[in-house]
Design a protein that fits this description.
- The structure is a homodimer of 409-residue chains.
- The first copy, chain A, is of the alpha/beta class.
- In chain A, the strands form 2 sheets. In chain A, strands 10-9-11-1-12-13-2-14 form an 8-stranded mixed β-sheet, with helices on both faces. In chain A, strands 3, 4, 5, 6, 7 and 8 form a 6-stranded antiparallel β-sheet that branches.
- The first copy, chain A, is globular and about 65 Å long.
- The longest helix of chain A is centred in the middle third of the chain and has 19 residues.
- In chain A, helix 5 crosses helix 10.
- Chain A contains 15 helices and 14 strands.
- Chains A and B meet through helix 3 of A and strand 14 and helix 15 of B.
Chain lengths: 409, 409
């Protein structure tokens, strides 16, 4: 029984609902996509509920489930994955937040939630705060893309059960973090101390003095949200007895790779945006397959079009995904298992994630090829995989690649 | 993202099995029903296992599951829901029973399990027992329809783990309630004290003297069954962030509405019997949708025909349900999500509930309309919803109505 290599493609937010403007078809159903269809026609197909039927998944909970972990057991918040995504090393028990550099006036009222979408100088600003002591707690601070930043608190007795300091709207005051349980008082206190110290340090920082001189809004505060405890997840090599690599442009997914022991591979041109270089990512995936048993390739673009409510852009992204699949198809080795799915639906009509299930196609020698001919929401619903859950995916892939361990004897 | 209103139709016991006398079709498959079919043809369809594949659901456990609660966690017996259905306020920890007014001779042997299907005077009889003290325990007693009655015990250390006093057959003696676990001794003692005191009070009651004068069997005892603890269920408005109303003729379902924070609406003509006024119920549902986010309309009639083993009557009921759907169809607003399902199958051939799954159709803007054309057991089995569970239903409806909360970020 030869073990095969696995290439898993996750197209973020790909699933959709029928749209009036597309003649009651979904973007996938409206796009000519010969290569995606080729994999569906030569593979086995079905629908996947990332968490469960009707449940609206976040990108974080969904990827945990696709990776085989039970989010109900291990997920507390998005912070730890964002922090891992910008390269902060964490230990189980650390509490992490995602945050924004923002602009406040002297009354701590937010005048710009993204500090004028600041790009330059955030690394220096983060460095000025990195290592800050908040009583017995130490804060690690690292800048992400644009105004984004991640904070990790380390110390005894920390809890993620604290409220955000981000009021989630401009014009409002920065909030005090409140403990949501008695054991979270220390954490809330540390968070509020962080807010004050960050303000003091940031407002006097040369980067902000330079911004003021150019009449740009200063990045003089950090507002936090998404508190979570870094989970203790058995890493892929130990859990699945395979080496794994991941390619993603966005920090969250790179952080999720790191949290489960998947090597995150940097690809020049992989931006996590609509301008991402899909062919470069595909080539990097093929290269990574030379050294790894499983490679995961994540593309954020379809989700962005869903959130923007733009059907025509989603269609263009699907055309480009299809071109990438054509490129992959021409270079695949015959002993590969390839799977195509999404982490959730982001319907153009609602501009948000929805609980509608996503297509799943599995292609490779030995799969029970079904009669489905097209890779879209309704065609795959009639496929032989039926309706499955995100947490089933890794088991299916291990099985088809002849890597599964027998349960029982 | 516009939130939509939801109308959920639950047709009790609607599912069935193929019958020889119907040419190996089910009653649903044998009935012309253009309106039900219209919703199936313009919606997405599937099969629902109320609890799980092959599991024969009661009406109580099934409705708990359809409402999104796990019966394995919250269900102990039918009593609390029957008691809520006749309007008894309960607190978590109360133990409730459903019961019959019955007739016993001087040896406590039952000569009529329904006291001659007594109709008049049961309210006075219940009132004579209401508030009875049984040591430190207090009994609330309220009459239901005909010979039916509900009893709630309140006090410290009560348990539902006691046996029935109802021997479930005429000619047998009223049973002593026995504790099924050591902690249930107090409860069993209270139940047995209730039996004795009820007999003493009832046999001397003017209602029974008058019945004796007319040579009608006296309602001189109450026999109990279905002990259960009133569960502590998070009510709908808190659990699902919506206001909900329910319309049902039968006490059990009205009680289940009350137990989960669904406003139970009285509709003149809604009897819970074959004579129920379905059009009046449909109009009441449309009216309730003006003030509530979710309205549940329950019709008992198909279940009654199943229990009676009468295919022709079940077909007539389905024709009337279809007329009701036609009435609803002509008055629906375009922003509504409508779902049609059943709580379980009650096949005519077996005159009891069965574990066969029931049809589910979901209709509304944005659903992935499938190729199913008919609302019946075998047609919907090929629908794109696939095979789901009762506990998935609320999540599906919240998703389609754009009311779901994201799990994760």
């Amino acid at each position: 029984m030869d073990e095969r290599k696995i290439l898993l493609l996750i197209f973020d937010g790909l699933g959709d609902r029928p749209l009036k403007e597309l003649g009651h078809k979904t973007p996938l159903e409206s796009t000519p996509k010969p290569n995606l269809d080729w994999f569906a026609a030569n593979g086995i197909n079905g629908l996947l509920d990332p968490i469960g039927p009707g449940i609206v998944a976040g990108s974080d909970t969904s990827h945990l489930a696709l990776f085989g972990y039970d989010p109900k057991e291990v997920y507390t918040g998005r912070g730890p994955f964002e922090a891992a995504g910008v390269g902060i090393d964490q230990k189980p028990g650390d509490v992490a937040f995602r945050g924004n550099f923002a602009t406040v006036d002297e009354d701590m009222r937010i005048t710009d939630r993204r500090a004028g979408r600041i790009r330059d100088g955030t690394e220096e600003l983060a460095k000025a705060l990195d290592g800050l002591r908040l009583g017995r707690i130490r804060a690690t601070v690292r800048a992400g893309t644009e105004h984004r930043v991640a904070i990790v608190l380390r110390g005894r007795g920390l809890s993620h059960k604290v409220t955000d300091t981000d009021p989630h709207e401009g014009g409002a005051e920065v909030l005090d973090s409140e403990p949501l349980e008695p054991g979270a008082k220390t954490t809330a206190k540390a968070v509020n101390a962080f807010t004050k110290q960050a303000y003091r340090v940031l407002k006097a920082h040369p980067v902000n003095k330079a911004r003021a001189a150019k009449e740009e809004p200063p990045a003089n505060i950090i507002v936090l949200r998404g508190a979570g405890v870094y989970p203790d997840l058995t890493p892929f090599p130990e859990r699945y007895k395979l080496s794994a690599a991941g390619i993603a442009g966005v920090a969250l997914i790179r952080g999720m790779f790191r949290a489960v022991g998947i090597d995150s591979i940097d690809v020049p041109g992989a931006t996590g945006g609509l301008d991402t270089d899909m062919i470069a990512k595909a080539d990097a995936a093929l290269k990574a397959l030379e050294t790894h048993d499983l490679v995961i390739l994540h593309v954020k673009a379809p989700d962005l079009c869903g959130h923007d409510g733009k059907a025509s852009e989603k269609i263009r992204v699907i055309e480009r995904l299809d071109a990438m699949m054509g490129h992959l198809k021409s270079k695949l080795s015959s002993d590969l298992v390839l799977a195509i799915t999404a982490d959730h639906s982001t319907p153009v009509a609602i501009k948000e994630h929805s609980g509608d299930p996503v297509p799943l196609t599995i292609f490779g020698e030995g799969v029970r090829v079904d009669e489905v001919l097209n890779f879209d929401e309704r065609s795959v619903a009639r496929g032989d995989l039926g309706r499955l859950r995100g947490q089933d995916l890794m088991n299916l892939l291990l099985d088809v690649s002849n890597r599964a361990t027998k349960y029982g004897a």
